[in-house]
Amino acid sequence: MGLFEQLRDNISRGLGALQGRRPVNPEPVAPVAPMQAQAAMPDSPWLTAWLDEEDFSASGLPYRPNEWFSLAQFRVPEDRQVQIRSGERRIRMYLKGLAVRAGQNLGAPAARNVVVPNLIETRQASPTLPTLFHPEIAVWALVGSNWQKCPITAINYNTNTITFTEPAGVTSNTGIEIYYTHSDGQFRFRILRELGGVDDSAATAFNGSFSALHSLEQSNLEAMWAWANEVNLVPGMRVSLEVYTTNVPMIWNDRANHYLHIYAESRKLNVLDRSRLVKMAELSARNNL
């Protein structure tokens, strides 16, 4: 009922009371919500914006076996809205585990075999060995104070054995790092809204097992998983990549050579009320997720 109709009925009831007529109870009227102020205004059209490993930063949390922990996080820029649409299949991910070995303090470079747990072969093209650059495996050696990449000469997926050339002079007990695709545990992406201090509110957006992820034919869109629900990200929100493994440590650094490629869209945003905007985005995320 509009404002003028309410005013008309009030006047009519007032006249009726003066004339001695019994008042008639009006039908209940739903309250009219006040006009809601806009929390933000778009400042550009939607544009392609891939979320890559370069957009994520290490969380700084140490690895914990048999527990979920945040491996890396993407923080939404203060002037952007980022959206991943429901059903999106343009997703490619290869996330590496870590095996650490002591250096042998060799006098000259020599071949070395290392057995690692849960090694898995992906559907990516295999390069000719030996090679310094392999899509699934990277071996690094700490020589003095510098990390140098080691040539990979052989891989036996049946015995989980990686053969590489260890350089001379690796003395540290943690001087050899081997990063490799594995089948241990699970991963998930969670949407976080910052509440202040160290508190966050979170909703899971996408998840799966490493075994399934690393055995998928990820160059085939029909075979790749679909992002389940639409996600809208605004300033004050983060995407947390979290992992759970039993015996394969994981760390986020440049040597790991993680590969992460998720199709998204973004547009510039003129934020008018940041607090209200992020609350609205979180409510939308929770309804969808």
Instruction: Give the mean pLDDT.
Output: 85
- Number of helices in the DSSP assignment: 3
Helix content: 10-25%
What's the helix-strand series?
Answer: HEEEEEEEEEEEEEEEEHEEEEH
Kindly estimate the percentage of residues that lie in beta strands according to DSSP.
35-45%
Distance between the termini: 36 Å
- What's the architecture of the domain at 40-49 and 68-90 and 185-249 and 263-288, going by CATH? Sandwich
Got a strand count?
Answer: 20
CATH class of the domain at 40-49 and 68-90 and 185-249 and 263-288: Mainly Beta
Using only CA atoms, what is the Rg?
28 Å
List the helices and strands and how they pair.
Elements lengths: L2 H16 L21 E3 L4 E2 L2 E2 L4 E2 L10 E7 L4 E5 L6 E4 L1 E6 L8 E6 L21 E7 L2 E4 L2 E5 L4 E6 L9 E6 L4 E11 L2 E11 H6 L15 E3 L3 E8 L14 E4 L2 E7 L2 H15 L1
Antiparallel strand pairs: 1-20, 2-20, 3-19, 4-5, 5-18, 6-17, 6-20, 7-19, 8-14, 9-13, 10-11, 10-14, 12-13, 15-16, 15-18
Brief descriptors of the model:
single chain; 289 residues; Jelly Rolls; five-stranded antiparallel β-sheet; 3 helices; 13% helix; disordered N terminus; VP17_central_barrel; VP17 central beta-barrel domain-containing protein
What does this protein look like?
The protein is mainly beta and 289 residues long. It has a domain at 40-49 and 68-90 and 185-249 and 263-288: Jelly Rolls, CATH 2.60.120. It contains three helices and 20 strands. It has helices at residues 3-18, 210-215, 274-288, and strands spanning 40-42, 47-48, 51-52, 57-58, 69-75, 80-84, 91-94, 96-101, 110-115, 137-143, 146-149, 152-156, 161-166, 176-181, 186-196, 199-209, 231-233, 237-244, 259-262, 265-271. The longest helix is centred in the first third of the chain and has 16 residues, at 3-18. The protein starts with a helix and ends with a helix. The relative contact order is 0.25. Residues 1-36 and 196-200 have low confidence and may be disordered. This is VP17 central beta-barrel domain-containing protein.
